[in-house]
Design brief:
The complex is a heterodimer of chains A (248) and B (142).
Chain A: H1 36-59, H2 63-67, H3 73-81, E1 88-89, H4 92-118, E2 123-124, H5 126-135, H6 224-233
Helix pairs in contact in A: 3-4, 4-5
Chain B: H1 24-32, E1 40-41, H2 43-70, E2 75-76, H3 78-87, H4 91-109
Classes of the chains: A mainly alpha (248), B mainly alpha (142).
């Protein structure tokens, strides 16, 4: 399976040997330890780029956009009115919901795609959606809609949960132990740059660790359950950079 | 532009399940934008997200509806939805949607200037006394 990066990766050339190499290590043989929170920063920034792009798009919305929506307004209204307490709905409400649902779908899909990438898959599956929901606090209301099965993380997962299968806990903590920010520890597989990227991709992205940025202490942002999940899952992660520099 | 429709049951005949969801084709199209060109989306993933979107609408609507009831208003408007999104943790959505709503309102409620000007359909409406974004001059009774 080819080793293509995320749509919004740095697009670095493949490392020698083809093994996944942490970005910022240009050409060196072994991956040096890279703080996980820098990856988190990168992903956070990517999401911020996504939102900045959406704000721009909203500014550029023209009259015609309000007539031709991506989602049918009548159906949205029907779903709204399924709630008995709902009486009258102004004309702008379904229009706004059409846009809000678009943002929602985009965000949930991006987060799900991250999970697929971690498992080196090119196909987004239901369990990716479940993972994204589990990892993101704001999606808690969806936990029963797409139940998370007690599935093992797939072998070769970039999270390094490979052999043990203990990384994923169904009802308990999210496997990535995602903090409120909702992004897992993640090493984007490095390969040739992806030819096509989503419109909101920031091509000139320059991750902090490339500039040799000092360690930012983000340890406070990770939840307890996340740490436990990682401690458990790092047994078989030989081929990946070692665990984050904190007590395990 | 307020619609005087009452709430209550959906009233769709035959109990069609699909009325509870947005069309999967539209959802798939939006999902595609978040995924690289060579990425694929499994059908069950689309269906999951389809269910999630309906739940999202219900979730936000419920909060907006509660707000309206507390404030003794009958009609849920765009501001209620934006407020609900912010309250329920979707803060990132607030800014883009505020801008979007502002633009929508400008288009919808722009009063017709008295000089020659056309509505969105390109039909002069200086004769028409109604200020509708989608010009109803073709059908309105002047």
């Amino acid at each position: 399976m080819d080793n293509q990066p995320l749509p919004y990766s740095t697009g670095q050339p493949p490392a020698p040997g083809g093994a996944p190499v942490v970005p910022g290590v240009s050409g060196s043989a072994g991956p040096p330890p890279v703080p996980h929170h820098h990856l988190l920063q990168q992903q956070q920034a990517q999401l911020q780029a996504f939102w900045a792009y959406q704000r721009q798009e909203a500014e550029r919305a023209s009259a015609s956009d309000f007539k031709n929506h991506q989602l049918p307004l009548a159906r949205i209204k029907k779903i709204m009115k399924a709630d008995e307490d709902v009486r009258m709905i102004s004309a702008e409400a379904p229009v706004l919901f059409a846009k809000a649902c678009e943002l929602f779908i985009l965000e949930l899909t991006i987060r799900s795609w991250l999970h697929a990438e971690e498992n080196k898959r090119r196909t987004l599956q239901r369990n990716d959606v479940a993972a994204a929901i589990a990892r993101t606090d704001v999606f808690d209301f969806l936990v029963d809609i797409v139940p998370r099965e007690e599935a093992k993380e797939e072998p070769g997962s970039a999270l390094g949960f490979a052999a043990s299968g203990t990384g994923v806990v169904g009802g308990g903590g999210a496997p990535g132990g995602a903090p409120a920010a909702g992004m897992p520890y993640y090493y984007p597989p490095m390969g040739q740059p992806a030819p096509m990227m989503p419109a909101w991709h920031v091509p000139a992205w320059d991750p902090a660790w490339q500039q040799g940025a000092a360690d930012v202490d983000h340890s406070g942002s990770f939840s307890e359950e996340g740490q436990a999940g990682f401690a458990a899952g790092h047994g078989g992660a030989d081929s990946f950079p070692p665990a984050p520099p904190r007590s395990e | 532009m307020s619609e005087a429709e009452s709430g209550g049951g959906s009233g769709s005949g035959g109990g069609k399940d699909q009325d509870r969801f947005l069309p999967i084709a539209n959802i798939g199209r939006i999902m595609r934008r978040s995924v690289p060109e060579n990425g694929k989306i499994a059908k069950d993933a689309k269906e999951s997200i389809q269910e999630c979107v309906s739940e999202f609408i219900s979730f936000i609507t419920s909060e907006a509806s509660d707000k309206c009831m507390k404030e003794r208003r009958k009609t849920i408007n765009g501001d209620d939805i934006i407020w609900s999104l912010g309250t329920l943790g979707f803060e990132e959505y607030v800014e883009p949607l505020k801008i979007y709503l502002k633009n929508y309102r400008e288009v919808s409620f722009r009063p017709p200037p008295l000089s020659s000007s056309s509505c969105l359909l390109g039909i002069h409406y200086i004769m028409c006394s109604t200020a509708k974004a989608q010009c109803a001059c073709l059908g309105c009774l002047i």
